[in-house]
Amino acid sequence: MTNMPKFKFTFLQWVDATSSSDWETNKEVADWMLEDKLITDLGWVIAENDEYVVISNQFADDGDWGNKTKIPKGWIRVRKDATLGIEDATTE
User: Fold this and answer.
1) Contact 91, 61 (CB under 8 A)
2) Is 35 within a domain?
3) Per the structure, how many domains does the chain have?
4) Is 92 within the bounds of a domain?
5) 11, 4, 3, 7: which is closest to 46 by C-alpha?
6) pLDDT tens figures, 10-49
7) Considering the entire predicted model, what is its pTM?
8) In angstroms, rounded to a whole number, what is the distance separating the alpha carbons of residues 13 and 17?
9) Domain containing residue 61
10) Is 54 exposed, middle or buried (0-12, 13-18, 19+ CB in 10 A)?
11) Fewer CB within 10 Å, N- or C-terminus of the chain?
C-alpha cells in the first residue's frame, strides 16, 4: 500500500524564457521579442512561496518526488488548482 499525500493538483500555462544565437537585425529582434513560448503543465504543487511555484508529476512509493519544475510566478498566465490525492493506492 502506498499512501499518497494530498497536495493541490494544478493546471498551469506559463511563458518560458527563450534565447537565440542568430545574427539578426533590430527589426528581427523586435519581432522575436514579441513571440512567446506558452508551456502547459500539470502537476502537484509541492512547494510555493511569493516568487515561485514548484510542481511535480511523479511521486515514488518512498515519498520522493520526480520530474519537478520550478516556475517564477510572474511567468504564469493561467493557473487552475484542484485537490487530488490518491489514498491507499496499491502498487504491483
Assistant:
1) yes
2) yes
3) 1
4) no
5) 7
6) 999 999 999 999 999 999 999 999 999 999 999 999 999 9
7) 0.78
8) 13
9) 7-84
10) middle
11) C
Q: Would you tell me how many other CB atoms lie within 10 Å of the CB of residue 65? A: 18
Alpha carbons 12 and 86: distance in angstroms, whole number: 21
Cell of 46: 509541492
Task: Please name the residue that has the C-alpha cell 493546471.
Answer: 11
pLDDT at 1: 40
> In sequence order, what E strands does the chain have?
7-16, 37-48, 52-59, 65-72, 76-84
**Across the beta sheet with 7-16, what order do the strands follow?**
65-72, 52-59, 37-48, 7-16, 76-84
Residue 19 is assigned to a structural domain of this protein: yes
Rounded distance between C-alpha atoms, residue 80 and residue 92, angstroms: 32
CA–CA distance, 47 with 8 (Å, rounded to integer): 10
Farthest CA pair distance, the chain: 60
Q: Residue 38 is placed in which grid cell?
A: 506558452
